[in-house]
C-alpha cells in the first residue's frame, strides 16, 4: 500500500510543496518500498535510528531530522543529515554548528516555533528567535544555515484552530524574512502539516509537509 499511498498524496500536492516521508519506527523494508516508489526524502526523529537506516539504505536519500535533538546525539547525524527541522534553542544551534565545523559541512536548519496550545510541544517564541538571531554568537556561526521555520499545530479536530496556528507560523516566517533574511534566497522553507492536517497547511503556505502514518500506516507507539 505504501506506493499507492504516496501516489495519492503526491497527486494532491502542488509543485511548490515537498513531501517528507516520516518513517520513524518503521522498518527499513518499508523505507525501501517508498524509495522504490520514487520517494527520496525521509524524516526521522531519533538520531541513532536515523543513522542506522542511513547506513543500510541507498545513498541518494535525503535525511531530514524532525524530532527533538539532544546535543549529545548530534554527532550521529551531522555527517549526512540534509535538513534539521527542529532547532529549538540557541544552545542546540551552537552545538550543531560546532559539530558541523568538525565535518567541514554547512548544515541547513529550520527554527522550530511553538505554535500549538499544548504545553509539551517544543519550540521557540518570537522573542527567543530574535534573541538568537541578534546574538553575536549566531553571527559567528559559519557552519549552519537557517532556511526557514517549522511548527506543529495542536492535535485537535478543530480545523479553525489548526488553520489559525499555521497562519501564525506563516506570519512568523514573513516577519523573520523581512527583518533578518531579506537578501538570503535560502530562507524559503515553511515546514508544517502532518497526516491529519497537511491539506490545511498546504493552503496556508507550507513548502514542506511531514507525512508519516498516511504513507506507512499507524505506528505501534506514539512518538
Ligand atoms: C511523527 C511526526 C510527523 C508525522 O506524523 P503523522 O501524523 O504520522 O503524519 C510529523 N512531524 C513530526 C515532528 C513528527 O514527530
Summary, kept brief:
The protein has helices spanning 2-12, 28-36, 47-56, 74-77, 90-102, 126-134, 136-139, 159-180, 198-203, 213-216; strands at residues 18-22, 41-44, 62-65, 83-87, 107-113, 144-151, 189-191, 208-211. The protein is an alpha/beta fold and 223 residues long.
Summarize the structure in words.
With 223 residues, the chain is of the alpha/beta class. An 8-stranded parallel β-sheet has the order 7-6-5-4-3-2-1-8. The chain contains 10 helices and 8 strands. The longest helix has 22 residues. β1, α2 and β2 form a beta-alpha-beta unit. The chain has one domain: Alpha-Beta Barrel (TIM Barrel), CATH 3.20.20. The structure holds pyridoxal-5'-phosphate (PLP). Pyridoxal-5'-phosphate (PLP) binds next to β8 and α10. Pyridoxal-5'-phosphate binds next to β8 and α10.
Blueprint of the fold:
Elements: H1 2-12, E1 18-22, H2 28-36, E2 41-44, H3 47-56, E3 62-65, H4 74-77, E4 83-87, H5 90-102, E5 107-113, H6 126-134, H7 136-139, E6 144-151, H8 159-180, E7 189-191, H9 198-203, E8 208-211, H10 213-216
Parallel strand pairs: 1-2, 1-8, 2-3, 3-4, 4-5, 5-6, 6-7
Bound molecules: pyridoxal-5'-phosphate.
Residues 22, 24, 45, 66-67, 152, 194-196, 210-214 line the site of pyridoxal-5'-phosphate.
Identify the notable features of this structure and list them briefly.
223 residues; alpha/beta; TIM Barrel; 8-stranded parallel β-sheet; globular; binds pyridoxal-5'-phosphate
Largest sheet: 8 strands, parallel
Question: What is the mean pLDDT?
Answer: 96
Return the structural class: alpha/beta
Q: Stretches where pLDDT falls below 50 for ≥5 residues?
A: none
**What is the multimeric organization of the chains shown?**
single chain
Distance between the amino and carboxyl termini:
22 Å
| CATH level 3 topology | TIM Barrel
Q: For the largest sheet, list the strands in their spatial order.
A: 7-6-5-4-3-2-1-8
Please tell me what the overall shape is: globular
Q: Find the count of extended strands (DSSP E, 2+ residues).
A: 8
Integer-rounded radius of gyration = 17 Å
Amino acid at each position: 500500500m505504501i506506493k499507492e499511498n504516496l501516489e495519492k498524496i503526491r497527486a494532491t500536492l502542488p509543485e511548490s510543496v515537498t513531501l517528507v516521508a516520516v518513517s520513524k519506527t518503521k522498518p527499513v523494508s518499508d523505507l525501501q518500498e517508498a524509495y522504490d516508489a520514487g520517494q527520496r526524502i525521509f524524516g526521522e526523529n531519533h538520531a541513532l535510528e536515523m543513522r542506522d537506516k542511513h547506513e543500510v539504505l541507498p545513498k541518494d536519500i535525503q535525511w531530514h531530522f524532525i524530532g527533538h535533538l539532544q546535543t549529545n546525539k548530534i554527532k550521529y547525524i551531522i555527517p549526512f543529515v540534509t535538513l534539521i527541522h527542529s532547532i529549538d534553542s540557541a544552545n542546540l544551534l551552537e552545538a550543531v554548528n560546532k559539530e558541523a565545523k568538525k565535518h567541514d559541512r554547512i548544515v541547513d536548519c529550520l527554527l522550530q516555533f511553538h505554535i500549538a496550545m499544548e504545553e509539551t510541544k517544543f519550540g521557540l517564541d518570537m522573542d527567543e528567535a530574535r534573541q538568537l538571531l541578534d546574538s553575536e554568537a549566531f553571527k559567528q556561526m559559519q557552519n549552519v544555515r537557517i532556511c526557514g521555520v517549522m511548527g506543529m499545530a495542536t492535535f485537535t479536530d478543530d480545523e479553525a484552530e489548526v488553520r489559525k496556528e499555521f497562519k501564525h507560523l506563516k506570519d512568523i516566517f514573513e516577519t523573520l524574512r523581512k527583518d533578518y533574511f531579506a537578501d538570503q534566497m535560502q530562507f524559503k522553507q515553511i515546514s508544517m502539516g502532518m497526516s491529519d492536517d497537511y491539506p490545511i497547511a498546504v493552503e496556508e503556505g507550507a513548502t514542506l509537509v511531514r507525512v508519516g502514518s498516511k504513507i506507512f500506516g499507524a505506528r505501534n507507539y506514539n512518538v
